[in-house]
Amino acid sequence: MDSFMNLAKQGYAAYEASQSDVSKTGGSEYNSPDNRPQGVSRPSFNHDEVVQTAEQHGSGDSGMFSHAMNYVKSNTQEHEEPIDEEHVTNSHQEAYERGNAGSLSAGSMGSAAALQIFKQFTSGSGGGGSKSELISMAMAEASKLFDQSGGAASGSKQDAVNGAGMMVMKMLVQSKMSSMMGGGNSGGLGGMSGMLGLASKFM
What domain of life is recorded for the organism (predicted)? Predict the structure, then answer.
């Protein structure tokens, strides 16, 4: 897990540096209308833009990605359910280091795809890095991983895409909750600091 934590810290440090380069004032990421913390605020996405981007980069039709976005938006209670970081990390290793994504459930495959995109974005190889682009690319990655693996051990391609979208939303929401509570090491969120460190650059 050490390398995972280091990755998160590096991603956040790179984000801090990029923020200073564009001369934003401290805390400016909270100033956009859809991002002001009021209780547990949820990231807002341009639905059509997300679906279009996912369709361009993924291996599914717009209906699949639109359904996934509706699933993510409607299941708000899941946004705050604790992420099993060890399980997600293991799923990612199984899919991307061992090439055994087909042994995973569709939901785990989606989580692994989401983590892969977070890693790409925080390492600077994932593009612009907006929240909308992040969730688009995660769902697209899940659809491609499902096809490349010849399917999942259980569940459908839609389940994989849903899982990727939900994992992105959970990481974004819980990252914001963590920062509002005084950082990733406070309260019960301490163990989450690795993945939340990755997510914090998109807040």
Answer: Eukaryota
